[in-house]
């Protein structure tokens, strides 16, 4: 088995990140993973400002790459992987251009990576999760259920028809004056709140698919906030009710996806992987874990540092694609198609 070492770059939102990941017969090893968060720069605007994000990526990426290579012990790099989308175009262009320059100067292949594929494979950074597995990807921009059958082989079972779960957390937190980023702040407030205080709508109840919808919840929460939230306790109670409602919808849709997954994939005890920033939420994690256990799925959530945006997952996704290309005998730089 071939040993491959890949430099990964992520810059699609408000984190600039560079990582070096190696895969050998011994397994996957993250040699370094450095992240520069721009959160403080965007906080005063209550959300990510694309222009500020792009400029900050430009300012930090070179330094971060040097640090990632130094922390990894200046290893020989076999390929460069970079997020090519989806994301804020200014940021994506910064990361991808840097990656192109780096690869061109060293005569290395450049592997464009879909950001979502990075999240999809992130669980394999720390555990050898076998294919096929069921994935719930819950981030600020996405909310999807996928059957992950192999590298580059995904079947979408469900997606949001409006907001992503993280977006719902962020927007409701904003209405409640909890600042940005809203998810962690809302969770903190919810810890001192009473879940049963407010009744919130259950979306898409009768539907047989695995889609999500959070816009009704958002509106309901905003209305309650306007009419009933006067004290800090009121606010904490609403946070607890909102968090429970989001977790419940994730559970209700995931249980359907588990059924579909079983119908299409003959695996005795498949893994249910939860990835993306919202997987950092303890209530969401706990309820999904209980669901997995009750339905005969093994539960896996990547460590928090690989749940939110990072470059190790991009390096790994690039590495897995590159390994596939090598197997097919098309590993030279000229024959690789560079997208993005
Ligand atoms: O995966 P991620 O870092 O970025 C995207 O690709 O979107 O996810 C960020 C999202 C944000 O919406 C953030 O509010 C949410 O994940 N998030 C949380 C928590 N930590 C992060 N949501 C709820 N509870 C948390 N503890
Ligand atoms: Zn992400």
From TrEMBL:
> What Gene3D superfamilies would the database entry show?
3.30.420.40
GO cellular component, alphabetical, reads: cytoplasm
Q: Say where the protein is mainly found.
A: cytoplasm
Name a Pfam family for this protein.
Answer: TsaD
Q: Which UniProt keywords apply?
A: Acyltransferase, Cytoplasm, Hydrolase, Iron, Metal-binding, Transferase, tRNA processing
Reactions listed under catalytic activity: L-threonylcarbamoyladenylate + adenosine(37) in tRNA = N(6)-L-threonylcarbamoyladenosine(37) in tRNA + AMP + H(+)
Localization, per the record, is: Cytoplasm
The positions annotated for binding substrate are: 137-141, 170, 183, 187, 281
Cofactor(s) essential for the protein: Fe(2+)
Occurrences of domain Gcp-like (ranges) = 29-315
Q: Which GO terms describe its molecular function?
A: hydrolase activity; iron ion binding; tRNA N(6)-L-threonylcarbamoyladenine synthase activity
Look up the EC number in the record and give it: 2.3.1.234
- Residues that hold Fe cation according to the record: 115, 119, 309
This entry's comment on the bound cofactor is: Binds 1 Fe(2+) ion per subunit.
Q: Name one GO biological process term.
A: tRNA threonylcarbamoyladenosine modification
Among HAMAP family, the record links this protein to: TsaD
Homology family: Belongs to the KAE1 / TsaD family.
The entry's function note states:
Required for the formation of a threonylcarbamoyl group on adenosine at position 37 (t(6)A37) in tRNAs that read codons beginning with adenine. Is involved in the transfer of the threonylcarbamoyl moiety of threonylcarbamoyl-AMP (TC-AMP) to the N6 group of A37, together with TsaE and TsaB. TsaD likely plays a direct catalytic role in this reaction.
Q: What is this protein called?
A: tRNA N6-adenosine threonylcarbamoyltransferase
Q: What gene is behind this protein?
A: tsaD
